[in-house]
Amino acid sequence: MEETWSCIPNLLIWMIMERLQFIDSLRLSAVCKHWLNAFHNFPKEATTSYCNFPWLMITKSKDHRGSEREFSSPWTKTKFTVDLPEFAKTFVLNSKNGWVLLLTCSDCCEQVPRVFLLNPFTRVKLQMPRRPLLFGVRLSAISMLEGTPNCVALVITYRYIAIAHPGVDAWKIFTIPSALLYLRIVHIFFVDHYLYLMDIYGRAVLRFNTIDFTMTNLFMGKTYPFGKEEKDTYFLQCNKEIIRVSSNGLIPYGRFSSYGFTEAAWSFHKYSISKATWEALDDDEIRGKSWFLSNCGAKFSSVAEGTPVEKVHFLSKFKKKGCHCLFSCNLNSPGKDAHGYFGNLSRKNTVWINMG
Q1: Is 63:42 a contact under the CB 8 Å cutoff?
Q2: Can you tell me the distance from the alpha carbon of 317 to that of 299, in angstroms, rounded to the nearest whole number?
Q3: What CA–CA distance (Å, rounded) separates 143 from 150?
Q4: What end-to-end distance do the CA atoms of the chain give, in Å?
Q5: Which residues lie in coiled coils (predicted)?
Q6: 289-294 and 311-318: which strand pairing?
Q7: Are 101 and 135 in contact (CB under 8 A)?
Q8: CA–CA dist 274, 271 (Å, integer)
Q9: What pLDDT is recorded for position 285?
Q10: What band does 102 get if pLDDT is binned at 50, 70 and 90?
Q11: Which of 84, 85, 63, 135 minimizes the C-alpha distance to 106?
């Protein structure tokens, strides 16, 4: 059999990646499936400290109608601009592993709004099916398989769940049980082939099986810890765990403070699916990570592992100033590092782009 470039052993690909910038490594992963697999199996000890840190995507034009986006890494001081027609007249719904889930603007487009997946680093686009019911998308989640989006879930007008795989012809639409509508679902997460819907109090109220399309009501009138809504609380995923990060001192929702952060007392909990309750994370589950939170845009939150930089980074939009700022708070001594931040980023739309 004739050997080709796609047959290069993983070890050789890893040796090449060690000499590349992260953006070039992402482009390398788009060569073929074998190289993509090598990219995702790149030994963690060989990666740079910031390779899994999210990027900031900044809209270059005054609004979402433009096609230019600036990608900025505050950690490596790297910036580059891409001009892709797919970005024009779109909003960011979600982000995972370098992929961005975009929704076309209904006010700007004559056609029915569409959802599609785009990797701005490799410029690969995955089309999702058309459907008139896509008006009123409230929540979204992306399931990954070997580094590629495998399934997309949408919550529409808080009444319907829409499920589809990239490339299929139509969305599968399911009605959320009427008994759960008053609970105000605000978060959805994929854990394996299950989709979990969580309410404003951090309770998993519905589990949806994306294989046999069955629903399980998890609420049943139960009570849980965190019985009240807390605005300075953020949800994310880490190693298939649903994580809740709370702070008593974080200035939330864009209210300006000259200090940026006050004395922050962080608390970390993971959701126990079997017990249907929240459990405090052990210290070793918190350390060795950087946590990324946001109160603007898609309100994306994530975590990066394998780094000695133990901090909480918070992307905030100040309402009075109309600008985005990125604060950095030391996890070990939040008060001491409370004033450290990356400063004014932009008055334009800014969101995290998840890389891990």
Answers
A1: no
A2: 11
A3: 5
A4: 36
A5: none
A6: parallel
A7: no
A8: 9
A9: 84
A10: very high
A11: 135
159: nearest Cα among 176, 147, 145 = 176
Cβ atoms of 161 and 139 closer than 8 Å: no
Alpha-carbon gap, residue 163 to 155, rounded angstroms:
9
Q: Sign of the CA dihedral 35, 39, 42, 46?
A: positive
> How far is Cα 263 from Cα 248, in angstroms, rounded to an integer?
8
Which residue, chain included where needed, has tokens 């998840």?
354
| Both tokens assigned to 307 | 């780094």
70 contacts 79 by C-beta, under 8 angstroms = yes
Tokens 């105000």, located at residue: 184
Amino acid at 346: S
CA distance 91 to 205: 28
Instruction: Report yes or no on whether pTM surpasses 0.85.
Output: no
Q: How many of the other CB atoms lie within 10 Å of CB of 321?
A: 12
Where do the domains of the chain lie?
A: 1-48, 89-225, 228-254+262-355
Contact 313, 109 (CB under 8 A): no
Rounded to whole angstroms, the maximal C-alpha distance in the chain is 67
Token pair in block for residue 38: 């090598």
pLDDT tens for each residue of 60-92: 776 677 888 888 887 777 788 888 889 988 888
Task: Look at the block and give the residue holding tokens 């052993």.
Answer: 9
Q: Which two tokens stand for residue 188?
A: 């959805």
Cα separation, 144 vs 138, in Å, equals 21
Q: What are phi and psi of 4, to 5 degrees?
A: -130, 175
Give the integer Cα–Cα distance in Å for 290 and 49. Answer: 11
